[in-house]
Write a structure and sequence with these properties.
The protein has 363 residues and is mainly α. Helix content is 64%, strand content 5%. The radius of gyration is 23 Å and the shape is elongated. It binds adenosine-5'-triphosphate and magnesium ion. Adenosine-5'-triphosphate binds next to strand 2, helix 8, helix 9 and helix 11.
Length: 363
C-alpha cells in the first residue's frame, strides 16, 4: 500500500485517513463492544447516589496513572493529604499529579461551557498542566527518541505555521462530522494525530490523554470524566509506543485503532465494577450508621463521607449547614464505630473513610 505523504506538512498527512483504512471488519466488531461498555458506564454513573463521589475519585486515579507514564511516583495518601490537609507540603511528584487533575477539570469546564474543543482550549489545558505559557512550539529541535538506543524515532513538524495548520486541521476533525466514522474510532485517530503533531515542548502525552476523555464527553458518550483510560495506556505502554509508530511507518491504522478501542472497553468495564463496589459500600455504610447511630444518620451525611474520603469538621459545617460542635460530635461517633479513622495533621484532625480509601486505592 502506498501512503501519500504531503511534504509541506513534514510528512504528516492531514486528517482524515481513508475511511477504508479505519473501518475494517475487526475494527467495526470491536467498536460495537466498546460502545456497549461505554454506554453501560454512562448509564450507571446516573444511578450513583451522588456522581461527585465517583468523579473526584476517578479524576485523581486518572491523574495519577497518566502522570505515572513519566515515572512520577506518588501515593494516593500523599494526594489526599495534599488536597485535604492544610499543613501538607506536597512533593514535586504529588504537585504534578494535582496539576493534571486541575487541567482535566479545566478541560471539562471548557467543553461544557463552550461546547467545542479548539486549539486555544488545548493550549489552556497544557498551560495548566505545565504551569507555563510557552504555547505552541516555535523553535526547532524536538525529536522523539528511543530511551534504550538513543535513536531518533520520529521528528515532529517544527515550523510554527505548519504546526498551526495541522492543529487547525485537527480542530476541524474534532468538531465537524462530515464523515460518519464512529467517535470511538475517531478517538484513536485524533490521538495519533495530536501526538504526531506534538505541538508543545513538553506535556504532549498528558495533554493528549486529557483530550481523549474530553472528546468522549464532547461526543456525549460520557457525562463526566469518569474513565481512566490512561491506566490502560501505561499498563500497555510498549504497545502504545510501537503502534503509534506503526501508523506512520506501516500505515497500520487497524492495530492502533483496535488497541484504543480495547482500552476503552476494558477501562469502561473496570470503572463499572468500581462503581458497583462503591454503591455497595455506600449502602452498607448507610445501614450501619442507621442502625448504630440513628440520631445522627442522614443520607447527606453519608454522601459527604463518600465525596470526600478524607473529611474534616469544616466540610460538614459548610456542606451540611450544621454547627462545629455537632460536626465534631458526628465525626467522632463515626470514628468510634469504625467507619472513619481520625488522624491529627498539624492543627487539624482529618477523618478517613478507610474502607472507601482502600477500595479506591485498589481499583
Ligand atoms: N512514535 C511516536 N509517534 C507519535 N507520538 C509518539 C511516539 N512515541 C511517543 N509519542 C507520544 O509522545 C508522548 C511523550 O511526549 P511528551 O514528553 O511531550 O509528553 P509528556 O506528557 O511530558 O510525557 P508522557 O506522555 O511520557 O507522560 C508519549 O506519551 C506519546 O503519546
Ligand atoms: Mg515529557
Amino acid at each position: 500500500m502506498t501512503i501519500k505523504l504531503n511534504k509541506a506538512y513534514n510528512n504528516l498527512p492531514l486528517l482524515p485517513p481513508k475511511q477504508s483504512w479505519v473501518e475494517t471488519i475487526s475494527i467495526l466488531k470491536q467498536e460495537s463492544k466498546s460502545a456497549v461498555a461505554l454506554a453501560e458506564l454512562k448509564g450507571l454513573t446516573n444511578t450513583l447516589p451522588n456522581p461527585n463521589i465517583l468523579i473526584n475519585a476517578v479524576i485523581l486515579k486518572e491523574a495519577q496513572a497518566s502522570s505515572g507514564i513519566e515515572n512520577v511516583i506518588t501515593t494516593q495518601d500523599k494526594l489526599y493529604q495534599a488536597l485535604y490537609a492544610k499543613s501538607a507540603k506536597p512533593d514535586g511528584a504529588t504537585k504534578e499529579v494535582l496539576r493534571y487533575r486541575e487541567a482535566l477539570l479545566l478541560g471539562t469546564r471548557l467543553i461544557k461551557e463552550r461546547g467545542f474543543l479548539n486549539t486555544n482550549g488545548i493550549i489552556a489545558i497544557q498551560n495548566e498542566l505545565e504551569e507555563n505559557n510557552a504555547g505552541l512550539r516555535k523553535l526547532p529541535g524536538t525529536a522523539l527518541i528511543n530511551d534504550l538506543t538513543n535513536e531518533v524515532i520520529y521528528t515532529p513538524p517544527d515550523n510554527f505555521d505548519t504546526i498551526n495548520h495541522l492543529m487547525k486541521n485537527l480542530e476541524d476533525y474534532l468538531n465537524e462530522d462530515k464523515d460518519d466514522v464512529s467517535p470511538l474510532i475517531k478517538l484513536a485517530i485524533q490521538h495519533y494525530q495530536f501526538e504526531s503533531i506534538h505541538p508543545f515542548y513538553d506535556g504532549n502525552g498528558r495533554t493528549g490523554r486529557i483530550i481523549n476523555i474530553l472528546y468522549l464527553i464532547y461526543k456525549g458518550l460520557l457525562n463526566e470524566p469518569v474513565l481512566y483510560l490512561s491506566s490502560y495506556i501505561i499498563q500497555n505502554k510498549g504497545d502504545y509506543y510501537r503502534l503509534l509508530q506503526e501508523v506512520r511507518t506501516k500505515n497500520n491504522w487497524e492495530e492502533w485503532i483496535l488497541y484504543m478501542l480495547k482500552g476503552t472497553e476494558q477501562t469502561a468495564q473496570n470503572t463499572i465494577e468500581q462503581i458497583n463496589k462503591i454503591n455497595q459500600l455506600f449502602s452498607e455504610t448507610q445501614n450501619l450508621v442507621q442502625e448504630k447511630l440513628p440520631r445522627i444518620y442522614s443520607k447527606d451525611l453519608i454522601e459527604q463521607l463518600f465525596i470526600h474520603p478524607y473529611t474534616k469538621i469544616e466540610y460538614l459545617v459548610n456542606n451540611l449547614g450544621i454547627e462545629r460542635k455537632a460536626a465534631s460530635r458526628y465525626l467522632n461517633s463515626l470514628d468510634e464505630i469504625g467507619i472513619l479513622k481520625s488522624q491529627q495533621k498539624g492543627k487539624e484532625v482529618i477523618y478517613i473513610n478507610t474502607k472507601l480509601y482502600n477500595l479506591l486505592k485498589k481499583g
